[in-house]
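pls read this protein.

:::
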Amino acid sequence: MRIEHVAVYASNPENMRDFFVKYFGAESDSGYRNLTTGFRSFFLSFDDGARLEIMYSPKMEDEGKSLFRTGYVHIAVSVGSRDRVDEISEELDRAGFKILSGPRVTGDGYYESCILGPENNLIEITV
């Protein structure tokens, strides 16, 4: 078995799609739109076959987002090397994204950087 894809709601799905395409090399489909319900979505594909669905619905509710909440917490993207973690982290910092930690070696041995991505979603960049 494998996880087929993970989905996230976004107030601005085009902006979130562009973030993953620009910084992590995702490829996007042309999108889906339901004219009756107002639902929209994009499927993003990554080199290893992982997929992320970014969705919008006019029925969405958005309460405060604590980093320490129950439920899905972050998306971790493996970029292949420590140098790439450093490079992407620096690029995101220059682009105005908030670096929460790192790049650093964690207590359990991961080399990672954690940033707040679009709509304050936690993104972990790792080897």
